[in-house]
Write a structure and sequence with these properties.
heterotrimer, A: mainly alpha, MetI-like fold, D-Maltodextrin-Binding Protein, domain 2, 2 domains, four-stranded mixed sheet, C: mainly alpha
């Protein structure tokens, strides 16, 4: 009977209109919000890296002494006895000689693959703390030359008094970019390409953080909604538990628990993080549900007999989606903080190579303090920092986009 | 005599505040809503008129007493009978900004109930029916509105959507809870007229809840007005009777508060002198008649000891039912006038 | 619940049950805000203590068993001897029943006896804590203070000049700062300014003060203390100042919209007076609860920061005891950190109550 048939029947996109409009609003909002747009791009970038990174740049796990690394441009230092100065200028000139090598980890194992490279008579491994002894051996003629590659070490040997704290000589990272393929970010203490580690080292971290964030959000959401809908003793008990867990300092507890439980399984780690991080969101969900179920439109739906399922999924849930999405993102960044923190301290699994493990090695192997090997620490630091920043920027943009007052202007 | 479409039998409702405080919001209400009538519930805020509306609409159960739908106890309805009752009674909320879910388009809001109860079978039917409903509430051209979201509409438009939603289930009775109090004054009359037209065209019984006696007078001229005070109905009768010849002292107070367009009339109007301006709290209701601490007709030993029941006033006075012992028992009373 | 299809809230159970009466009596005692807050804090502390008791003693493969096995292996002594030594260090009587052990444990804690350190044999854990605590209080406290003050001032500025370029820039910066984990800030400072630019010597700044100096109230020593605390403090500030700015901004903006501020403006009060007496005070109120939460966060985060900079505070001590499997110290420090967090929450709640007349009068939050 309608007379306005024309505008009424725009049938093509209407069944999808809810989703369509939501996507349109989302896109308009994101493209208008500069910070949010950057965050969004960042997240897309991370997704691409996590999925395609390992395919494009395979994980470099080959130990290469001659590419032991620092940023491009670091020089090889050859230390020889004074009478042989200027004799050994390249690695090739070491053929047939007994050569001492200085590095701080890996020992002879590191040298083995290269024993044939230059037909060196013998490599003698000197651990980092052995510089003094290596120099003695050099002077005594036990070895013909000592190969070191680091500016820091050179400083120490040139001017031991002025080179500063003695701890620094544990920080050997050695590099000769000229000998290997170009390394965008240099190589690590074992000559492995840092860029390949960055490309491959995000997946497990991000996956664990997402899992932990998801678990925590699910726990928070179900307990919060449950407490709000059931009320009474259940509500009081759950709220009391939430208040209790909220007060316990989370990170120290995780660290202590890590001393008891072997956190060698990322699902376990994610679960543990989730179990400690749900309370604040649970309280927020609880009050949201409490306020939403009192809304007039919920009452109208009851009067229209639309059914319990409709009311939960169509009337209450859609009004919490943005709220939950935003909190999910914050839960993921929180989980990332705790996870990387644990790995950095050496309390969580290091059998899997990721950005956190790079930080751990960067510190435990001392590259942190070596000016020539900054990338080994800086690269994962920046990868983690930009991930967190993208997520937070995106979440803050979502907060603005899903604000109905702002939405009406679209 | 026809069966009332909805009837309250001695309905009371209380709420708990904290653990041990009980607030008696409604007490022993008997009320019958007859088919196709206008019934206005009038009272100040806190008198229980919204609670009455919610119990009428089946959104709240009485703590005591029975609600009858076409003569059957609502609490005992089951299956199809219950569903029919549920669909037959609808509510229009006060706040048009809170009563529509912001995440749904107007089409969705109106089509959910249509699909749910099988009034339409497919998308095309739903579009047509929604269009019809929107025209019914004067939201035209339909195409401008149907795919919009509530936040894109004005308050008056939203209230019309809210009314259209109440009509989706072809209800036989609609409870309008302060339905126009948050709408711009300029739009009020058109919405009220629309509601009145609806009653004629769709055979709907309307229960109109308002704090504004002037509005009730305009709206329910052919219907009845029930005046509530602190959880009880104090006077009920046909609108002309209540507004021209109020019997209960509280009704007189309310009427005297209406400003008249004619200044002479306002000046010469009877002003009832209350003994106290303070409205007692629901948690500390005075014994006897709840109005007695303020009532100019207060009779010691009667009003503060006995709870008045609704009863017809003597025929020489008027034609309404009031809850006032001195009045219904024919005592000689003199109104304190100022 | 509102979602059932039958009439809603059929809460016809309006009768008052006996349970309600008992709970009501309890609520009357509890209605005093101060009393209630203190009782809640005590219950929390008790629950954490009990939890730790079960974790350390009763869990399968618990630290005591592990430690006994270690002792037997390392020093080839009998099970009984090893068990005896463990019992002495952990302060428990292994002949006693679990219930008695539990009460002994509570009693010891009341006397602040947290057992002996396993690594530093013969040193009570509590004296270790007392040795390291001042440094954490000093550095974390200083960091929190600087960050709170800076964040509050900048946040007020953002709110006052909202939607100006200044606000946008500061908003962006604060989001950025609050997003990056604090230890990542620490690492960046160290690598960029310490190692690359060599503005300071990372090695020299380890520890809480130069070991060549003797602790005394000399200007030199005090300067040295501040010098050593500098990196942790900067890291704390970078990690928290962003969220202070954002929360101050949002609470200030909401206060700026209040009628009493408009009225004050209309009355022609000076801007400075409005900002301090009307806006600042009311905007600061909600931040006190946040302050309590962030105290916990800062102390929790001190494990990472202090171990990164090798700053000998409580956090680094916790890290050292965990890597060294020093279970008694671990337990002691964890309990101590938890107590301080509960205590700071409690103090903040009480302070909030004192400052906000609504709570002071009605006892409700």
């Amino acid at each position: 009977m309608t007379t306005q048939a024309a505008p009424l029947v725009s049938q093509q996109r209407a069944p999808l209109s809810g989703l369509w409009t939501a996507l349109r609003i989302f896109w308009l909002g994101v493209s208008r919000n500069r910070a949010g747009f950057i965050g969004f791009l960042g997240i897309v970038f991370y997704i691409i890296v996590v999925i395609f990174g390992p395919i494009v740049v395979p994980f470099d796990n080959e130990v290469k002494l001659d590419e032991i690394a620092a940023p491009p441009g670091t020089r090889i230092q050859l230390m020889t006895r004074s009478e042989n100065v200027n004799t050994y200028t390249t690695l090739e000139s070491l053929n047939g000689k007994v050569v001492g090598v200085i590095g701080n980890t890996g020992g002879p194992k590191l040298v083995e693959p290269y024993e044939d490279t230059f037909e060196v008579e013998e490599y003698r491994w000197q651990a980092g703390r052995g510089i003094d002894r290596a120099l003695e051996e050099l002077m005594d003629g036990d070895i013909d030359a000592l190969v070191i590659f680091s500016q820091t070490v050179k400083d120490y040997i040139d001017e031991p008094e002025q080179a500063g704290n003695q701890n620094l000589y544990t920080n050997l990272a050695i590099s000769n970019p000229a000998l290997g393929p170009a390394h965008l970010l240099g190589t690590d203490t074992q000559g492995r390409d840092i860029f390949s580690h960055i490309m491959n080292g995000g997946a497990s971290l991000i996956f664990t953080a997402l899992l932990a964030g998801l678990f925590s959000t699910i726990i928070a959401f179900s307990l919060g909604a449950f407490a709000a809908l059931i009320g009474g003793v259940v509500d009081r008990t759950l709220t009391a538990i939430a208040n209790f867990v909220l007060v316990i300092p989370r990170f120290p507890l995780l660290v202590v628990l890590a001393a008891f439980v072997q956190l060698n399984n990322f699902i376990l780690l994610a679960t543990l993080i989730a179990l400690l991080s749900w309370p604040s969101l649970m309280r927020a969900v609880r009050s949201q549900v409490l306020s939403l179920r009192e809304r007039d439109y919920v009452e109208a739906a009851v009067a229209l007999d639309l059914g319990r399922w409709h009311i939960m999924t169509r009337e209450i849930l859609p009004n919490m989606i943005s709220f939950v999405a935003i909190n999910l993102i914050f839960a993921v960044t929180g989980a990332m903080y705790e996870q990387v923190g644990l790995i950095f301290l050496g309390m969580a699994p290091i059998n899997d190579y990721n950005w956190g493990v790079m930080l751990y090695f960067g510190r435990s192997r001392g590259t942190l303090f070596n000016p020539d090997s900054a990338m080994m620490v800086l690269a994962p630091v920046l990868a983690i920092a930009f991930f967190q920043v993208s997520m937070v920027m995106f979440a803050r943009a979502l907060e603005e986009i899903f604000n109905p007052r702002l939405r009406s202007s679209l | 005599m026809t069966t009332p479409i909805l009837e309250f039998e001695n309905v009371s409702r209380s709420f708990k505040k904290g653990r041990t405080t009980i607030i008696p919001v409604l007490q022993n209400i008997d009320l019958a809503v007859n088919p196709l009538e206008f019934l206005c519930l009038v009272g100040e805020s806190g008198c229980g008129k919204t609670t009455t509306g919610k119990i009428l609409a089946g959104l709240l159960a009485p703590s005591d007493g029975r609600v009858l739908f076409e003569g059957q106890d609502v609490a005992k309805l089951k299956g199809e009978d219950y569903k029919r009752y549920r669909r037959s009674v609808q509510i229009i909320h006060q706040d048009p900004y809170a009563s529509l879910n912001p995440t749904h388009s107007i089409y969705n809001i109106l089509s959910y109930p249509l699909f749910r109860h099988g009034y339409v079978k497919n998308y095309a039917q739903a579009r047509d029916r929604v269009g019809e409903l929107l025209q019914r509430v004067d939201l035209t051209p339909v195409g401008d509105v149907i795919d919009k979201y509530p936040h894109q509409l004005s308050g008056g438009q939203r209230q019309r959507v809210s009314i259209a939603r109440a009509l989706t289930t072809n209800p036989s009775i609609i409870v309008a809870d302060e339905a126009v109090s948050m709408v711009d004054v300029s739009i009020r009359i058109s919405i009220l007229n629309m509601l009145m037209a609806m009653q004629n065209d769709l055979a709907v019984t309307l229960v109109f809840i308002t704090h504004d006696l002037a509005l009730a007078k305009y709206f329910a001229w052919k219907g009845r007005i029930a005046v509530m005070y602190l959880g009880r109905v104090v006077e009920i009768g046909r609108t002309p009777e209540i507004t021209e010849n109020p019997q209960h002292p509280y009704t007189k107070v309310l009427l005297s508060a209406i400003p008249e367009p004619d200044p002479d009339r306002t000046r010469t109007k009877v002003h009832v002198a209350l003994r106290s301006e303070d409205i007692p709290r629901l948690t500390e209701l005075p014994p006897g008649c709840a109005f007695h601490p303020r009532c100019p007709w207060f009779v010691e030993g009667v009003c503060n000891t006995h709870i008045p029941q609704l009863a017809p006033v003597p025929r020489n006075l008027g034609d309404s039912d009031v809850a006032c012992i001195p009045l219904t028992q024919g005592a000689e009373l003199k109104l304190y006038e100022s | 619940m509102a979602t059932r299809s039958s009439p809603v809230s059929s809460a016809s159970s309006i009768e008052i049950s006996l349970l309600d009466r008992i709970l009501d009596r309890w609520q009357k005692i509890n209605s005093n805000y101060v009393v209630r807050t203190i009782i809640q804090a005590l219950i929390t502390v008790w629950a954490v203590i009990t939890f730790t008791f079960f974790l350390i003693r009763l869990m399968p493969g618990n630290p005591i068993q592990v430690y006994v096995a270690q002792l037997m292996n390392a020093e080839s002594i009998t099970y009984e001897e090893a068990y005896g030594r463990a019992a002495a260090q952990f302060r428990f009587d292994f002949n006693a029943s679990p219930v008695e052990q539990y009460f002994d444990y509570l009693g010891n804690l009341l006397r602040l006896d947290l057992g002996d350190s396993i690594i530093s044999v013969g040193t009570p854990v509590i004296s270790q804590i007392m040795r390291f605590l001042p440094w954490t209080l000093f550095s974390a406290g200083l960091g929190l203070l600087v960050s709170f003050v800076t964040g509050f001032v900048l946040g007020m500025l953002m709110a006052y000049y909202r939607n100006s370029p200044l606000d946008h820039i500061l908003s962006f910066i604060s989001s950025l700062m609050s997003a990056v984990p604090n230890y990542i800030w620490g690492l960046m400072i160290m690598v960029v300014f310490g190692v690359q630019l060599q503005w300071f010597s990372v090695g020299d700044l380890r520890g809480t003060y130069d070991p060549r100096l003797t602790p005394a109230f000399t200007p030199e020593f005090i300067f040295d203390i501040f010098k050593h605390a500098l990196l942790p403090v900067i890291t704390y500030v970078l990690g928290t100042v962003g969220s202070w700015m954002l929360s101050t901004k949002s609470s200030t903006v909401s206060v700026l919209g209040e009628d009493y501020v408009n009225v004050a403006e209309a009355r022609g009060l000076s801007e400075r007076r409005i900002l301090t007496a009307y806006v600042g005070r009311n905007a600061a109120l909600p931040l006190f609860t946040l302050l309590a939460i962030s105290i916990g966060f800062v102390i929790g985060g001190s494990v990472l920061i202090e171990s990164l900079f090798v700053y000998n505070g409580l956090g680094n001590f916790l890290f050292q005891s965990i890597t060294g499997r020093d279970y008694t110290s671990m337990q002691g420090v964890f309990l101590f950190i938890t107590f301080s967090v509960v205590l700071s929450n409690l103090l903040a709640d009480l302070l909030y109550a004192r400052l906000d007349p609504r709570i002071r009068v009605s006892g409700e939050k």
